[in-house]
Request: fold
Amino acid sequence: MKKIFAIIATLTLVVSCSTDEGLAPKNGLTLTGYNSIEARTAFDTPSASSIPFSWSAGDYIWLGSFKSKAIAEGGKAAQFKWDNEPSTAGDYHIFYNMTGNHKNAVVLTEQSADGNLGNDGDFGYAVADEFKTFYLEHKTSYIWFDTTSADVTEKLTTITVTAEEGVNLAGKCVFDYANDAWSSTVSEGSNQIVLNFGEGVQLAEANDGIFAAMVTLPAAIGGKNLTITYTFASGATFTEVKTPSKDFEPGKVRRIATSIAAANLVQPEPELSYELRVLTFEDEDVKFDPIENFAFAYPDYMGGYWYGDYFTLTKWSDYIPRDGQYGNGHRSYEWYDANNTELEFVWPSEENEASWWGIAGHAGISDYVGTMDDVNSFHDDNMLYMIDLQAYNVKGGANGSKNFCSQYGYLDPDEYATIYSPEGVLPGIQFHDGVARVIDHMYVTNTTYTYGVIIHGECDFGGSFQLTDASTFKIVAYGYDSFDDTEPTITDFYLLNTGQRFVTDWTKWDLSVLGKVVRVEFNLVACDNGYGKYGLVIPAYFAYDDVAVRFEK
Reply:
């Protein structure tokens, strides 16, 4: 059987019923099935408020558990034959079922728009009378698509219908014919059905008849959202959400009329020639091997340092110091995102070790965040604890994560530059294997320390800062395509832009403009009044997370 619409009449059948499905037919049998509004496997041309239906060539029925021969031609009536005749035709239940087995129905999640609903899971039930005649009552539900367009020129390839979670539109179900109802249990259920148009069909401004139809299980869909997605040959889509007022009922048809304009098509994202791998600093994303004999280093305020306890580092959060501000101040604090992005942080110089006023080059991996209360008291002694590692005004890392990384260091033209960047080398990240790749982006934000100094204008670095409408503070990234490159590609990102325009949330920074690089170094640059006797009076920190790298396919 093929297509469908709204039911305008219900046939009441007075028939005998039996639960005996085990008698084998004998001596030949022919049953005649009539196709009325209630009996259908195919849509014909609709008229007014109804659609007539007919049998389709190839249809067959089940007499109990015995399948008839397939009919050669369709029509309003069809004769179904068995080689053997049962003793009493009226003792046998008749099931129209072409995807399952008599009373065990299967509504498919992948359906064809060829008009033959029987091949998609259309299901019907009847009992033959003493004249070896039956009228089929259909027990599945149906969606009639009336889809048009005046200007879409490409072909429609699929229509996908998705119900809310927990609503089964397709799956396996048993028809309880004794109670004339479906079993409440659906196995292998799905809330989505895809109607496939093969190589595609051209939409017209109006349809002469049924455009397409879909079979569904009866479902409690009334008042719930139903999402319909139309996909075209190019991959472009049009999506709409309907909220049916009534449930999908057995034998009933719901019409979805849609006119699609070319301007409303959503074009597909171009297929990327690369995959993105992301450095998240999250423990669940760890791919590196355990690192033995790891220890934090502590400055001794005499230009030297001493190590804390040694331990085996197995996850990103092991890098987070928990016992003091300066617990990661030596160049031995390095990380490597092995087997993922291949990014690593290494100290830019053998001489770049801890200094009494801060951690030269890299504050480290962190999960510490600060609030306005921390900003207001950042200069108090009790705020020294981990203030270098605090990201300001966020709940954790970027995109709902927990961990992130804090970067420190800048290049200054005066004699004190060597304190922060020995030999003029800036801190940064690089590819461990030396392969040049595009770093697509990272997320950055301000730290509590930096934000506090800018707001309050207090600093111990040989001066103070006065915030004005012209104040700026930015990160400058230098991308090197080889370790010998002396002419980097440069891009920047403003943490403070013209006065009060602060970055106070994780913000995506496009680094793809640097091209393929083996190393990216970061500098922090302020407006003129951001420098004092010893260089920057603003703490040279920023926080970053979710560094995405392109790996060519």
Q: What stands out?
A: The chain has a mean pLDDT of 82.
